[in-house]
Design goal:
Blueprint lengths: L9 E2 L9 H6 L9 H18 L6 E7 L2 H12 L6 E5 L2 H12 L4 E5 L8 H11 L9 E5 L1 E2 L4 E2 L2 H11 L2 E5 L18 E5 L10 E7 H5 L12 H10 L10 H17 L2 H21 L15 E5 L8 H10 L2 E2 L1 E2 L7 E5 L6 H13 L5
Parallel strand pairs: 1-12, 3-4, 3-5, 5-8, 8-9
Antiparallel strand pairs: 2-10, 6-7, 9-10, 11-14, 13-14
Helix pairs in contact: 2-9, 3-4, 5-6, 10-12
Pfam family, one: Aminotran_5
Family: Belongs to the class-V pyridoxal-phosphate-dependent aminotransferase family. PhnW subfamily.
Keywords: Aminotransferase, Pyridoxal phosphate, Pyruvate, Transferase
């Protein structure tokens, strides 16, 4: 029997991320997409996701979609917004801009408010734009989309405050919670979110292969025939799963689904989302305090920072090279992320996954050992 090697390093990234032995072991069994046992797993996952998202479970349903998290975002945009609709995208990073790019490709009538890569969402500006667009007019926005945790920087956007403005304007609220759902307490009914999108390989700590959408039943039920794609038809996927007790329309990532089921079980064993959030917050505290003690500066002010991924400025030294720093940390057992913004020379470190405070303490020691530019 072939031995599976231990992981050579921790992935300190925003996903894919380091997974538990139990999640990796769950990948070892084959499953049939038509089999009742497998489809029962799918149904159990769908119910658990809604339970995690809200106490008002009767109002919401969930749909699993093959592909990356971005595929699920595109499925929502292309399946939910009618030809007569108008989308307002609130962007402050690469993933908000990706939503806008999807809107262009899908030929959606849309507008973007770009707050810059390090700027928080300006609520007054959003309110003014929604009011000036009017209501019940051709210029009104029917849908508003926002990224919760913008992993470009690690910024955590105020989805509650935006939700109140969207609801007041009578629009449908779409939230990309790719890097936050499962890692921070929320109730999407209280937040007035109509569609929340996330991925298997983020805070629930599964592996890549599918995303999921948690949406209001009544809103999703009105979306028949709107899809601009066959494979990414959210409504048809939902109907197939509803009517066939968990069956996917096309071949599903069976191993990944089973691993995600295990990841959900491990989330429950940890104490649920509140406990996991507490671990991520502690990871982040140790990381930031340790890096600052070594002379590193964070890109964002603490008030805007999420506990999921943190951006640090690169050292101002003629001897420093990110690639060399990266390789030294990798040799010590840690993989970090390069920067993603254009305004600053920086790198990022993720705090999520099967990663614990002791691991972050080991990382800080490794960073101290590998400051070759000093």
């Amino acid at each position: 029997m072939m031995m599976i090697p231990d992981n050579p390093y921790l992935l300190l990234t925003p996903g894919p991320l380091s997974t538990s032995p139990g999640v990796r072991e769950a990948l070892l069994r084959d499953w049939c997409t038509w089999d009742r046992d497998y489809n029962q797993i799918v149904q159990r996952i769908r119910a658990r996701l809604v339970d995690l998202a809200t106490r008002q479970t009767g109002q919401y349903t969930s749909v699993l979609m093959q592909g990356s998290g971005s595929a699920s975002v595109e499925a929502v945009l292309g399946s939910v917004i009618p030809e007569s609709g108008r989308l307002l995208v609130l962007a402050n990073g690469a993933y908000g801009k990706r939503i806008a790019q999807m809107a262009r490709v899908l030929r959606l009538n849309h507008e973007v408010i770009d707050f810059g890569e390090t700027g928080p969402v300006d609520l007054d500006q959003v309110s003014t734009r929604l009011k000036s667009a009017g209501a019940q007019t051709e210029s009104a926005f029917s849908h508003v989309a926002l990224v919760h945790c913008e992993t470009t920087t690690g910024m955590l956007n105020d989805i509650a405050a935006v939700g109140r403005l969207v609801h007041k304007a009578g629009a449908t609220y779409i939230v990309d919670a790719m890097s936050s759902f499962g890692g921070i307490p929320m109730d999407i009914a209280e937040l007035e979110i109509d569609f929340l999108i996330s991925s298997a390989n983020k805070c629930i700590q599964g592996v890549p292969g599918f995303g999921f959408v948690i949406g209001r039943r009544d809103v999703l039920a009105s979306c028949a025939g709107r899809a601009r794609s066959l494979s990414l038809d959210l409504y048809d996927q939902w109907q197939c799963m509803e009517q066939n007790e968990g069956k996917w329309r096309f071949t599903s990532p069976t191993h990944v689904v089973r691993a995600f089921d295990q990841a959900l079980f491990e989330l429950e064993q940890e104490g649920g989302i509140a406990a996991r959030y507490g671990r991520y917050v502690e990871n982040h505290r140790i990381l930031v305090e340790g890096m600052r003690a070594l002379g590193f500066e964070t890109l964002l002010p603490d008030a805007l920072q999420s506990p999921f991924i943190t951006t640090f400025y690169n050292p101002e030294s003629e001897h420093y090279r990110f690639e060399e720093f990266y390789q030294k940390l990798k040799a010590d057992g840690f993989v970090i992320y390069p920067g993603k913004i254009s305004q600053a020379d920086c790198f990022r470190i993720g705090n999520i996954g099967h990663v614990f405070p002791a691991d972050i303490e080991r990382l800080i020691s490794a960073v101290e050992r590998n400051r070759y530019w000093l």
